[in-house]
Design a protein that fits this description.
This protein is an alpha/beta fold. The protein has two domains: about 160 residues, 3-Layer(aba) Sandwich (Rossmann fold), CATH 3.40.50.620; about 120 residues, Rossmann fold (3-Layer(aba) Sandwich). The chain is built from nine helices and 13 strands. Helix 7 links the parallel strand 10 and strand 11. Helix 3 crosses helix 4. The longest helix is centred in the N-terminal third of the chain and has 28 residues. InterPro entries: UspA. Pfam families: Usp. Belongs to the universal stress protein A family.
């Protein structure tokens, strides 16, 4: 995965229990990655287009405040756009190395803030399909509900790797990388997508888990494969049952002082959602360290 263009969907929402804007962790992480790779950050604020008087749904509310409700939605959308832009401006101003503010493709560290009104999942998916990486702040806040649609759209509609960040992330993260491996197609995609990142890491740890109680452990073949790419990796094989694997992977990564976990994203093939009970579901719900999900 060569990173030249990074997408950051922003919502402009605030956590009432946290004075910092909920978009800030994703912006910080994306800017840190972009500065390291001389990449471009595309910050996208999408707000849903509110219904207008006379639309089908408003006909159900004659005389019951339809106009007032529409006006409130418009005001809330405007406030969200204002907050998103203000957070963007603060994050840029805090950087030691200032990126180019550009509307045109350019070599080097650059950034652009764009706004759209319309279908949020559709807009995020379309932008993600023309990006190398999508960055989202994780669900470690009380605001998980607005985060999930962005994550689902990024994984399912863009087919692009998604970096999910916890509320706090070091600017120098991704130097000690844990790679979750269970010898599946999803895990193999994650390996292929992260090879360039693994080459740049100071430490790579392969955490091998079993798909079933009777499955064997397969860490060494992957360690050998990475060596063909010039990547020296250590292996850690989990003895936990598949049911306890999600927590065990995260705990092992933390114990090894890893600052990024890479894994294949398991999606429900029909519901197009994260597979309940999977490692993917667990790390998204408990983002203790940055996680790179590869669909």
């Amino acid at each position: 995965m060569i990173v030249r263009k990074i997408l950051v969907p922003v919502s402009g929402r605030l956590d009432p229990d946290d004075p910092e804007d909920l978009d800030a962790p994703a912006l910080k992480a994306a800017l840190a990655v972009a500065a390291r790779h001389d990449a471009h950050v595309e910050v996208l604020c999408v707000t849903a287009e509110p219904a207008r008087p006379g639309d089908e749904w408003s006909a159900w509310l004659p005389g019951y405040g339809a106009d007032e409700l529409i006006r409130w939605i418009e005001e809330e959308n405007e406030e969200r756009r204002r907050r998103a832009k203000a957070t963007f401006d603060r994050q840029i101003a805090a950087l030691e190395v200032q990126p180019q503010l550009t509307d045109d493709p350019a070599r080097g560290f650059s950034v652009r803030f764009t706004e759209e009104v319309g279908d949020i999942p559709g807009a995020v998916g379309a932008a993600g399909r023309l990006s190398d990486l999508v960055v989202l702040a994780g669900a470690g806040h009380s605001w998980e509900s607005p985060f999930r649609p962005l994550l689902q759209a990024s994984l399912r509609r863009s087919a692009c790797p998604v970096l999910v960040t916890p509320p706090q992330v070091s600017p120098g993260f991704a130097t000690r990388v844990a790679l979750a491996w269970n010898d599946t197609v999803e895990a193999a995609r994650a390996v292929a997508a992260s090879l360039e990142l693994l080459k740049a890491a100071e430490k790579v740890l392969v955490i091998c888990s079993r798909e079933s109680e009777t499955a064997g452990l397969q860490a060494e073949p992957l360690v050998e494969y990475l060596a063909w790419h010039g990547i020296e990796a250590e292996a850690a094989e989990l003895s936990e049952s598949p049911r306890d694997t999600p927590a065990a992977i995260v705990e092992r990564a933390r114990a090894a002082d890893c600052d990024l976990l890479v894994l294949g994203a398991f999606l429900h093939s029909r519901a197009h959602t994260l597979l309940f009970g999977s490692v993917t579901e667990f790390v998204v719900s408990e983002p203790g360290i940055p996680v790179l999900l590869v669909p």
